[in-house]
């Protein structure tokens, strides 16, 4: 029940010692502010990092060959080996739970200014991909399209270039589609420009990459049946590690690698990495709660302490009230309400201030001037914080309220 | 005449440290409308007795009837209820709430009767007016003289229309002139039919009451009828 008279009493007593009330409230304000700021900061970090993964199929792994670390079947250790198209065929035919596999060629080029268009030139690396690479690591296109199956089948001399390559070879705003560029001495038609930038890269910056059909590169770069690396994507519901294990077994068998050789195959399991990033942010979150809650708790202890002091100071007043007919429960409710009011006001100001600061931080870091809510707490976190305030505010008043309730009118009145 | 207070063999011992038997079998009856003083040396147990009468403290053995209710083993809540309904207190040190003005202090007992703020402030003003403090209603206690403070306290004691007024050394902190004024006010209140018990160690104060109960070492030494003397000394006039 909202009892205006009671709230009036509460505000009179709180405002009686303004400095103290404000200092007390500040502890709670700061605590909840810290909690909100830390949680928002953690969220922001998490969101900005996962943005870089957002276009990457996380149920995939990336493999490339290394050097053997065990002697096996007459081969010395430290041997270099090479994945080949035969391996890929076997993997496609036998691995259970495999959805997509996408081979890649990454020829090494030492030449400078290997990419030319008329007067314009630059140094960029070419990479041979299959069309399905786009399913695993989606490119955002500025112009045109990604490679398609026809490009692969017909060994077309076409290319998809990164945004940097475009900037170097073309005028601003110029339509690059259908234009020829020379890469490592061979002319290719540009079919698309990818933004790159956001996503994770495995072989240099995608903005500086020229992607040509795998089959075209196979022929023109004279790489035989070699495969430099490949992506494998698991079917939904299948763990990537399961697929990866089968793949590694095949590669080890095909290339006489010791089954226990841990270094012969390099790999990158996105699912695992994602999981670990998830744990990292869980950790950040837990830490934020612990630190924020600790600060808040200190603030609440402050409120409780001050209320204790206040009750002691008000012994006589409380005694008078009791003599005049205040029930113990009335006194208790009064003290609880006071502590609750201080805590609640400070707490909600703290939440609001925290949200405001996060919002401003968002505005400051966003490129386009619009708030992105990257560094922001969720609605439910805010509700949880509010609940915590209400509970702690009530708890803070409990001790002082009991103390006040125990005050006997005679003892209080005989105090001079 | 009806009895309002009836004490039967009341005993009270304090147990902080060495047990101190303060009240040793008090038997007492006080009638409605009486003006009674309790006299005795310091430490004789006057305040202890008054606190028991005011349900501010418990007694160990015996029986205390107030307004035909047995006051024994009450919970704090019941005690608070009875205090609020039946008893008005006046203290030596006034016991006004320092951060409330005169009117709010007077109105406080009605706050605990859930009377609305507007209504209780209005009533408080009426009582302050009766006690000649209308102009001081919005002053804080520290702006009032001792006599004014005690009159505010009297107004506060009266506002809940209690059955009895209990005053513990009501003039103890006042000079003799102000004391006389306050006592005059108390007499006027009594003259309206209000039962009043005044604790004092000053014979001058006791002399103005109709009955003097002499307490010595926790025992009622004697009860003196003082009505003749009293009436001749002061003329009674209604304050209504
Ligand atoms: N709360 C208490 N605890 C212990 N002793 C007390 C307490 N209150 C009073 N006394 C003692 O009881 C005796 C009577 O006290 P009191 O009733 O206040 O006397 P009076 O009011 O007549 O001066 C005194 O010796 C006093 O010290
Ligand atoms: Mg005394």
What form of chain A results from the Cα inertia axes?
Answer: elongated
Q: Classify the helix fraction of chain A into a percent range.
A: 40-55%
Kindly report the average pLDDT value of chain A: 88
Report how far the terminal alpha carbons of chain B are from each other.
Answer: 23 Å
Q: Number of folding domains of chain B? A: 1
Query: What's the multimeric state?
Result: heterodimer
Please name the CATH topology of chain B: Rossmann fold
Task: Give a brief outline of the structure.
The complex is a heterodimer of chains A (416) and B (240). With 416 residues, chain A is an alpha+beta fold.
Could you name the key traits of this structure?
heterodimer; A: 416 residues; alpha+beta; 2 domains; twelve-stranded mixed sheet; 13 helices; B: 240 residues; alpha/beta; Rossmann fold; six-stranded mixed sheet; 8 helices; binds adenosine-5'-diphosphate
Structure overview:
With 416 residues, chain A is an alpha+beta fold. Chain A has two domains: 4-53 and 275-414, no CATH class; 60-269, no CATH class. Chain A has 13 helices and 14 strands. In chain A, the strands form two sheets. In chain A, strands 1, 3, 4, 5, 6, 7, 8, 9, 10, 11, 13 and 14 form a twelve-stranded mixed sheet that branches. Chain B has helices spanning 46-53, 76-86, 102-111, 117-130, 146-159, 176-191, 203-206, 227-233; strands at 3-14, 20-31, 35-40, 61-66, 69-70, 87-90, 164-168, 195-200, 211-216, 219-225. Helices cover 35% and strands 28% of the residues of chain B. Chain B has one domain: 3-Layer(aba) Sandwich (Rossmann fold), CATH 3.40.50. Chain B has eight helices and ten strands. Chain A binds chain B through residues 4-5, 8-9, 12-13, 16, 316-317, 319-330, 408-410, 413-414, 416, and chain B through 47, 51, 54, 56-57, 76-77, 80-81, 83-85, 89, 91, 93, 95-100, 108-109, 111-113, 116-117, 156, 160. The complex binds adenosine-5'-diphosphate and magnesium ion.
């Amino acid at each position: 029940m909202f009892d205006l008279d009671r709230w009036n009493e509460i505000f009179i007593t709180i405002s009686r010692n303004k400095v103290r009330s404000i200092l007390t409230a500040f502890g709670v304000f700061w605590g909840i502010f810290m909690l909100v700021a830390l949680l928002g900061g953690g969220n922001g970090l998490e969101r900005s990092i996962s943005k870089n993964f957002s276009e990457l199929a996380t149920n995939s792994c990336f493999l490339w060959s290394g050097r053997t670390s065990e002697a096996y079947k007459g081969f010395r250790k430290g041997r270099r080996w090479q994945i080949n198209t035969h391996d890929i065929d076997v993997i496609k035919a036998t691995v259970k739970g495999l959805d997509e596999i996408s081979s890649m060629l990454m020829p090494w080029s030492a030449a400078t200014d290997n990419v030319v268009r008329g007067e314009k030139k630059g140094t960029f690396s070419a990479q041979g991909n299959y069309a399905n690479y786009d399913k695993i690591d989606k490119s955002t296109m500025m112009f045109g399209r990604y490679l398609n199956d026809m490009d692969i089948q017909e060994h077309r001399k076409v290319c998809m270039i990164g945004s940097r390559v475009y900037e170097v070879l073309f005028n601003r705003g110029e339509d690059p589609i259908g234009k020829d560029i020379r890469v490592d001495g061979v002319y290719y038609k540009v079919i698309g420009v990818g933004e790159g930038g956001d996503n994770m890269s495995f072989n240099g910056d995608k903005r500086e990459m020229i992607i040509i059909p795998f089959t075209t590169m196979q022929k023109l770069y004279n790489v035989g049946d070699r495969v430099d690396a490949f992506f494998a994507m698991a079917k939904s519901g299948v763990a990537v590690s399961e697929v990866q294990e089968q793949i590694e077994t095949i590669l080890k068998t095909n290339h006489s690698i010791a089954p226990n050789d841990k270094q012969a195959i390099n790999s990158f399991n996105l699912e695992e990495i994602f999981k670990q990033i998830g744990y990292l942010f869980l950790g950040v979150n837990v830490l934020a709660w612990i630190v924020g809650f600790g600060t808040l708790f200190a603030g609440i202890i402050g409120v409780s302490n001050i209320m204790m002091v206040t009750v002691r100071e008000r012994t006589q007043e409380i005694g008078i009230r009791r003599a005049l007919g205040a029930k113990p429960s009335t006194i208790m409710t009064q003290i609880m309400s006071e502590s609750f009011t201080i805590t609640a006001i400070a707490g909600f100001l703290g939440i609001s201030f925290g949200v405001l600061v996060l919002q401003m931080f968002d505005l400051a870091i966003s490129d386009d001037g619009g708030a992105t809510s990257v560094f922001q707490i969720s609605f439910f976190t805010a509700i949880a914080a509010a609940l915590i305030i209400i509970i702690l505010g009530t708890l803070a008043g409990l001790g002082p309220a009991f103390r006040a309730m125990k005050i006997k009118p005679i003892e209080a009145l005989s105090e001079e | 005449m009806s009895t309002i207070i009836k004490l039967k063999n009341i005993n009270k011992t304090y147990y902080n440290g060495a047990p101190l038997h303060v009240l040793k079998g008090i038997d007492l009856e006080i009638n409605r409308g009486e003006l009674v003083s309790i006299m005795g040396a310091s430490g004789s147990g006057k305040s202890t007795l008054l606190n028991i009468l005011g349900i501010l403290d418990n007694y160990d053995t015996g029986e205390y009837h107030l307004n035909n209710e047995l006051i024994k083993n009450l919970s704090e809540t019941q005690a608070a209820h009875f205090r609020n309904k039946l008893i008005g207190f006046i203290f030596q040190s006034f016991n006004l709430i320092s951060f409330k003005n005169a009117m709010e202090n007077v109105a406080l007992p009605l706050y605990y009767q859930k009377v609305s703020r507007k209504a209780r402030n209005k009533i408080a003003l009426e009582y302050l007016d009766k006690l000649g403090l209308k102009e001081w209603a919005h002053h804080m206690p520290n702006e009032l003289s001792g006599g004014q403070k005690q009159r505010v306290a009297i107004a506060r004691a009266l506002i809940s229309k209690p059955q009895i007024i209990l005053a513990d050394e009501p003039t103890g902190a006042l000079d003799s002139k102000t004391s006389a004024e306050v006592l005059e006010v108390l007499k006027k209140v009594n003259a309206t039919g209000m039962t009043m018990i005044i604790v004092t160690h000053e014979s001058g104060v006791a002399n103005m009451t109709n009955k003097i109960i002499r307490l010595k070492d926790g025992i009622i030494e004697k009860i003196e009828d003082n009505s003749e003397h009293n009436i001749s000394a002061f003329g009674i006039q209604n304050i209504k």
